[in-house]
Automatic annotation (TrEMBL):
Record PANTHER family: GTPASE ERA, GTPASE ERA, MITOCHONDRIAL
GO terms, biological process: cell division; ribosomal small subunit assembly
SUPFAM superfamilies documented for this protein: P-loop containing nucleoside triphosphate hydrolases (SSF52540)
Name of the protein described by the UniProt record: GTP-binding protein EngB required for normal cell division
This protein's record includes keyword Ion transport: no
Amino acid sequence: MSEPSVDQLLGALSEAAELGAGRVPTDELEQVRRIAERAGERRALSSEHTVVGFFGATGSGKSSLMNALAGEPIARTHVGRPTTSVPLAAVWNPRGASALLDWLQVGDRRVMEVPFAAGQDLSLILLDLPDFDSVALDHRAIAERLAGQVDVLVWVVDPQKYADAVIHRDFIAPLATHASVTAAVLNQVDRLPPGEVEQVVDSLRGLLRRDGLERVQVLPVSATEGTGVDALRALIARFAAERKAASQRLSADVRSIAGRLEAAGVPGKMRGADVQQLERGLSRAANVDAVAQAVADSYRKRAGQVTGWPLTAWLLRLAPDPLRRLHLALGRDRGRDAEVHRTGMPPMNAAQRAQAGLAVRAYADAAAAGLGDGWAAAIHEHAADALEALPSELDRAVARTDLGARGSWWWPLLAAIQWLALLVAVIGGVWLLLPIVLPLWGMVAPAIPQFEGTETWLDGWPIPLVGLLGGVLVGILLGLIGAAIGGAVGAARRARARRRLRKQVGAVALESVVLPIEGERERARQFAVALARASGRKR
C-alpha cells in the first residue's frame, strides 16, 4: 500500500484539530495551525531545492564541515568568532532559491559554481547554523527556528560532547519522528585513537536509539583530514537527488504533532449495565414506583366504587383519587396535550436530585473512561446540562405515559348484578313490611308466601325474607369478589404502568444523557481515527 501523501496527512490533521477544538490543549492546536501554515509556505516555494541544516554545539566543527563539503573556505569569516552568529547558506543551482532563503530568513548566501557531487546537477542548499548551546539566546532561537524549517537535519557532534544530555533531551529527542530526514555526524574523529572510533560511534548509535532514532545513519568524519567527507557528501547528494526530503520532513512534522495529540485517548466500550443503572437511578428520581402504586390504588378505588355494595360503595367517593391528585387520572384517554402538561407531583426533593445526580455522574464517569482531561470535561459538562433539564423532562415523561388507568369490562357486569341483588333485597324488605304497615292504614295485609316442598332447609322460610337476606349477602359477596379481582388487576396494572413509565424514563435518559454523551464519544472516536490517519496508520 502506498504511503499517504502530505495532503492526506495534513487533511487528517486538520480534521483532528477541528474535532479536538475545546477538547485538547490550545497550545497543541496552535502547533497544528503552525505546522499546516508552514507546510503550505514550504510547498509554495522551490520543490527543486533540498535544504540541509547542520546543527551542533559550540566547537563541534560545523563550519569546518561546511567548508570541506563546499570544497572551499566559504565559512572562513566565521572561524574567528566564538560561535556562528548568523546562518550561512551554500547554494547549488540558485534559480528559484531566493524566495526559499527569504522564507528561511537566511541573508548570508554563497552561490557555488562547482557541482556538489561529480556527475550530478543537484539543487541544494547547505546551512551552517549558530550553535544551539550558545550563551546568546538569539543564536539558540535561530537554531530552534530553522530546526523546524529545513528539509534534512544533520546533527554534528564531537567526541567530547556527543553524549551531552542537553543536546539529546532538548534537540535530538523531540525530533525523533524525523528519522527519515535525519543524519548524525561524529566529527573530529581524528582526535580519537583509531581503535576507539568505532566504540564511540556505537555509543552514539545507542544514545540515538534511546532518543527514538532507530535507523539513523551515523557517519564518523574528520573535516580537517577529509575522513568520511565523501560518505557524507554521498548521503546528502542522495537526499537532493531523490527530492523527497521536503515532503518527508512535512510528513514527519504532521506525524510528530499527531503523536502528541493522541494523548487525548480513545473511548472505551460502554456496557448495557451502565445504561440500565442510569435508567434505574432516573426511575427512582422520577418516583416511578410511587406513580405505579397510585395506578393500582386508583384502579382498586374506582373498581370498588362501581362494583362494591351500593349501600357502602359511595363512601369510597369521599377519598381523593390517587391519580387525580397527581393530575394523571385520565392519562391520554381524553386527548390531553401530554407534551406540555405537567403532573401534580411535588418537585424533586434533595434525595431525588441526589439519586439523579449519582446516576448521571456514574454514567458520565464510565463514558469518560480512557479519555483525556479535555474530553472527560466535555462529557461531564453534558452530564451537568442534563441534570439541569432532567426534573422537568422526567415530569413530562410521566405526564405523557399511558398509565392504563381505564376501567375494565367486568365492572358494569358486576355492577348490574349488584343493583339487581339490591333490588331483590329492597323488594323482599318492602314485602315484609306490608303486613305491618297496611293494617295501620285500614288496608288488608297480603299473605307472606313461604317455601314449601323444596325438601331443603328453605322449607318454611318466608320468600320475602329470603329475598332480603339473599340480596344483602349476594351484594356483600360480590363486593368482596370485586375487591379481590380489583386487587389482582390493580397489581397487574401497577406492573404494566411501571414498565411503561420506565420505558418513558429510558427515552428521557437516551435523549438527555446518553445521546449527547455518546455524540461526544463519537467525536473522540473520529478524532482518534483522524489522528491515526495523520500518523500514517490505519485504524
